[in-house]
């Protein structure tokens, strides 16, 4: 249990804190990847990710900040769970609570399931236990924290091993495994796309009147619904400055030549990031170096050459 883990001493607690820090960085990297081609791209200077529930004004909780809050908690829970399963913590093991129980007609629980419950408890310890849901901002943050942790549950994978004569697979033993974090980020990005504008009334979150026209008024806010309090700005300018100045983009013609689908987020990114924000698009050719022509050498080494190639970059400029 978490209590036993914390009793193990300060060394164990420090290992936990290090994993929380790594999980926060995991969330930040995934946030930046998911918003790579959008005007808001998880800028560090705006303190997007808020570990330990740093206080912010309620009127700044846009759906982008809500996404940042959710993916931070997801990143921490994911990292803690993985580290627990890999044996990096004392007094922390696989989740065997279902082991031996029947899971379906031809399979039963077994193996070494990732201990997501432990990861969730640590995430709550560092994010939820430090704030009480007494105002709009706190209540929204706590809800979005839970959305992040729910994303881990929704994207878990069922791994099975067959048993039977000559691989007949008459029965199977199965266990749950965390998916890669990109799947979690993609799940949360879909939650972001349908995020709900809410009000804080009588100590609870309620959908705004505008939202109720699109959804059943009696419908409850679900654990997969990201919520926010303020409509997002266009993010072209921040404090009077061009927010997308210097950002790289991909011209529509380049995206089409590469064979990407029309709905790929890179497509029209130059228009979205540059032209629509009053900036120009400047193209330049640069030389990049990368590993290539790699060969396996006995035993056990991989030798690569360094190859140079020229690429064209498009950038938002004045």
UniProtKB/TrEMBL annotation:
Main location per the UniProt record: secreted
Entry's Gene Ontology molecular function annotations: cytokine activity; frizzled binding
The keyword Secreted is assigned to this record: yes
Subcellular localization: Secreted, Extracellular space, Extracellular matrix
Protein's UniProt name: Protein Wnt
Pfam name, any one: wnt
One Gene Ontology term from the biological process aspect of the record: neuron differentiation
An example Gene Ontology CC term for this record: extracellular space
Protein task: Ligand for members of the frizzled family of seven transmembrane receptors.
Top-level division of the source organism's lineage: Eukaryota
Keyword Transferase: no
Organism expressing this protein natively: Capitella teleta (Polychaete worm)
Keywords: Developmental protein, Disulfide bond, Extracellular matrix, Glycoprotein, Lipoprotein, Secreted, Wnt signaling pathway
Family: Belongs to the Wnt family.
